[in-house]
Amino acid sequence: MERDQAAAPRALRRRATSAEQVLWNELRGRRLDGLKFRRQHPLGPFIVDFCCVEHRLIVELDGDVHDSQRDYDDARTKYLAAISYRVIRFTNDEVANDLDKILTSIRHETTNHSRK
Questions:
Q1: Checking DSSP bridges between strand 86-91 and strand 38-43, what pairing results, if any?
Q2: 87-100 in b/e burial notation, b at 16+ Cβ within 10 A?
């Protein structure tokens, strides 16, 4: 990745929301069932919140801003599906109030879908 292309993901990592920090703490370093996740990972024209390349799974956290950009999010999800990635979404509130449910959902997605 060229230097300019690496700048945007790096800036997003520095400005992570508290929900992103909490979830990243559970995913980083293969802490969740040995799964390797990348944070603020570029895919095509987009940067996704969390990506498990091995299972072609993207985890997105949606804050309040996502209520006003549903069309953008839908187009983004369609693009990612077209390149064979599955996207699962959670709200920041879900991270704060039911982290175990999120981790269970991620496990389910990685164990019940074949690796590509």
A1: unpaired
A2: beebbbebbeeebe
Residue carrying the six token digits 């800036």: 11
Q: Per the confidence metrics, is the pTM higher than 0.90?
A: no
CA-wise closest residue to 106 among 61, 65, 64: 61
Nearby residues of 51 by Cβ (< 8 Å), 6 or more positions away: 37, 38, 41, 43, 57, 58, 59, 85
Task: Return d(Cα 86, Cα 78) in angstroms, integer.
Answer: 10
Closest CA to 21 of 77, 69, 92, 103: 92
Structure tokens at 7: 């700048």
Angle at 84 between CA 8 and CA 22, to 5 degrees: 50
pLDDT digits (tens, 9 = 90+) for 32-82: 999 999 999 999 999 999 999 999 999 999 886 655 678 888 889 999 999
3-class secondary structure, 18: helix
